[in-house]
Amino acid sequence: MSTLHVTRSTPLSRIALPLAALLVLLLAAAPWWASTATLRLIGEIMIYLSLASLWNLLAGYTGLVSVGQHAFVGLGGYILFTVALYLGWNPLLAIPLAGITAALIAVPVARLVFRLNGAYFAIGTWVVAEVFRLSFAQISSLGGGSGSSLPIGIMKAMAESKAMRESLIYWAALALGTGSVVFVYLLLRSRIGLALTAIRDNETASSSLGITIPRIKLAVYVGVAAVTGMVGALIFLQKLRIAPDAAFSASDWTVLVIFMVVIGGIGTIEGPIIGTLLFFVLREFLADLGTLYLMILGALAILIMMASPKGLWGLVTSRTGLSLFPVGYRVETRGDQG
Amino acid sequence: MDWINIIIQGILVGGLYALFATGLSLIFGVMRLVNIAHGDLIVASAYLAYGVMQLTGVGPLTSLIAVIPLAALFGYLLQLLVLNRTLDKDILPPLLVTFGLSIIIQNGLLEIFSANSHKLNLGSFEIESIHLMPGVDIGYFPLLTFAVAVAVVFGLQQLFYHSAIGRAFRAVSDDPEVAQLMGLNNRTVYASAMALCLAVVAVAGVFMAIRANFDPSMGPGRLIFGFEAVIIGGLGNLWGTLAGGVILGVAQALGAQIDPGWQLLSGHIVFLLILAVKPQGLFPKGAA
Fold first, then answer.
1. How far apart are CA A177 and CA A272, in angstroms?
2. Domain positions in chain B
3. A146 close to B (CB below 8 A)
4. Complex ipTM, two decimals?
5. pLDDT at residue A68 in the model
6. Min distance B81 CA to chain A CA atoms (Å)
7. pLDDT at A120 over 90
8. What is the pTM of this model?
9. Is A105 on the interface with B (CB under 8 A)?
10. How far is the alpha carbon of A299 from chain B, nearest alpha carbon, in Å?
11. Measured between CB atoms, does A313 come within 8 Å of chain B?
């Protein structure tokens, strides 16, 4: 006879997790097998993978559709420059500090923007990013509107050789990229994830069951801001130069990220991964088109939102039921002898 | 007299911000839609007027005869063919679709008109002014802008509360299902609201383009000004939105006096302060 059995994994996920781990190990060894150009490309992919996973957690799972995450990217970058230039810290140590500071600043920011109703919340976050950009342009000790650079002496404190510095930055990117995906995955499987699902399905009912919605939304917003700040610090450590317009660039750190998530599949863990990879593949072929490329991405995002709101990965799961990183529970029928 | 002059100029600019804001306020009131592309549509209308002027040789104000209906038609079709399909309880699809639209418009304008800035020329009317007292001159054009803003708000108010279409707007806003049962076609009511919104957007775009240079990247900034005016004034109150625009205009004008870099910043800070102290806005609905 057969028994019913509740499980969180699927046959595919049991293969996918070890394979993913193997891939991460392979990527961690990249400084030994990849060229500098490849290393940088993977690093950039990792940075966008991180931003995409984080934005997806915010908009896709928590209902906080922020279009102002570039506020925390730029903030993280500026914190790294401040402590490296004025306190002489090792830039790598400045990355976690950027995360902590971003989280601390995210708390009062959240108290303000959370007052805005769902859709207006989006524009409110944008205003905050503008305020950050305009404020940093006023700080003359950080170069004001024209920005500042990291001198080579500070970079040498990180590591003597250029190759070692490249590798360190790459590993940090790999850690943040894979770390963000794991963070979102584990969070969604935790009690908070359960609460988020309940809130998404019915806010009133979940509230009456004792879920404190504002607290959970605040926790997610602050957590996402912290990791976004760390990513921002890393981005500008790699660029060695920061200026307000680049640091708080909506098109680089928010627009592209939103397109990646929407095209890949918002509200799925796999979506941002697929969207990020697809974005980089498309960029190889279409980047020469310049503005036309962005118009194509915009049109693609609109089409997907109207035809398949769960993106490309949504199309895959609805046809096949596949799930690489399952967060829900399923009932399996197992045939056994009792 | 300097300060009086600065405040008066700020108030008059506030009229323009109110023009940015009323369309936003209107469609949010009718269908809870926040259009991220609103600012880009304002800029696109300015380019449309520029195109009409190039083709026909008319002045910017005359070009409105063509620009307003074209913009309204675009709004009607946009709502009917695209945005209506995204309206649901979930706020995500309409936000992301209008976000995509915003990027398409910005880059489309960049592709067609390049990043160079343009300005619509109104001739000597732009520089003539009334001499009020020493140090205080009121330009005809800023005054006209403000008068148009007042007229638009008054007109929309009348339309909302004293016409059949206004009744339909209020009905679908209050309860879309019951409105449908009463024989309204919600889809075309929404489309009419968007057409009306775009008509106001067209006026806003042309007045913005006469006042100063414009370029394809300016959309998000106009969206933010309009949004701030709506929130400062209080959701759902059109006269409040006008007051919100004026407060924003004055805050920016005073900020610019401290330091040019503080012009935009002080506007945003006033907005955030009001959000912190009175999240419902200064004149919440029901006061009007």
1. 11
2. 2-113+138-277
3. no
4. 0.90
5. 94
6. 11
7. no
8. 0.91
9. no
10. 7
11. no
What is the SS3 string spanning chain A? CEEEEEECCCHHHHHHHHHHHHHHHHHHCHHHHCCHHHHHHHHHHHHHHHHHHHHHHHHHHCCCCCCCCHHHHHHHHHHHHHHHHHCCCCHHHHHHHHHHHHHHHHHHHHHHHCCCCHHHHHHHHHHHHHHHHHHHHHCHHHCHHHCEECCHHHHHHHCCCHHHHHHHHHHHHHHHHHHHHHHHHHHHHCHHHHHHHHHHHCHHHHHHCCCCHHHHHHHHHHHHHHHHHHHHHHHHHHHCEECHHHHCCHHHHHHHHHHHHHHHCCCCCHHHHHHHHHHHHHHHHHHHHCHHHHHHHHHHHHHHHHHCCCHHHHHHHHHHCCCCCCCCCEEEEEECCC
Give the per-residue pLDDT at B288. 41
Q: Does A123 touch chain B (CB under 8 A)?
A: yes
Interface-testing mutation among B20, B96, B112, with chain A (most A C-beta atoms within 10 A):
B96
- What's the rounded mean pLDDT across residues A147-164? 85
DSSP for residue B125: G
In sequence order, what are the residues at sequence separation of 6 or more whose Cβ sits closer than 8 angstroms to the Cβ of residue B86? A305, A306, B93, B94, B97
User: pLDDT by residue (tens digit) across A280-292?
Assistant: 998 888 877 878 8
Strand A2-7 with A330-335, pairing:
antiparallel
Mean pLDDT for chain A overall: 89
Q: Which two tokens stand for residue A1?
A: 């006879």
Which chain A residues contact residue B259 at CB under 8 A? 138
How far are the Cα atoms of A13, A76, B10 from residue B143, in angstroms, in the given order?
67, 44, 11
Write the CA distances from B160 to A314, B26, B130, integer angstroms. Answer: 42, 10, 35
Burial class (CB in 10 A: 0-12, 13-18, 19+), B121: exposed
Q: What is the pLDDT of residues A251-261, one digit of tens each?
A: 899 999 999 99
Sequence-separated (6 or more) residues with CB below 8 Å from residue A77: A98, A232, A233, A235, A236, A242, A247
pLDDT digits (tens, 9 = 90+) for A295-331: 999 999 999 988 888 899 988 888 877 777 777 777 7
Binned at pLDDT 50, 70 and 90, residue A338 comes out as very low
By C-alpha distance, the chain B residue nearest A304 is B97
Mean pLDDT for each consecutive 10-residue tract of chain B (288 residues)?
Answer: 86 95 91 92 97 94 96 96 87 90 95 92 84 84 95 94 92 88 89 96 96 94 94 89 96 91 92 90 70
> Are B34 and B222 a contacting pair, CB within 8 Å?
no
Top residue of A138, A245, A255, A295 to mutate, by most chain B CBs within 10 Å, is A295
Contact (CB<8Å) A305/B33: no
pLDDT at residue A327, rounded to an integer: 74
pLDDT at B1: 57
pLDDT-derived band at A336 (thresholds 50, 70, 90) equals low
Question: Is a pLDDT exceeding 80 seen at residue A34?
Answer: yes
| Nearest Cα residue in chain A from B223 | A123
- The CATH classification number of B2-113+138-277 equals 1.10.3470
Report which residue type is found at B268: H
User: Chain B contact for A161, CB < 8 A?
Assistant: no
Tell me if chain B has a CB within 8 Å of the CB of A79.
no
Q: Which residues of chain A does B224 touch, with a Cβ-Cβ cutoff of 8 Å? A: 123, 126-127, 130
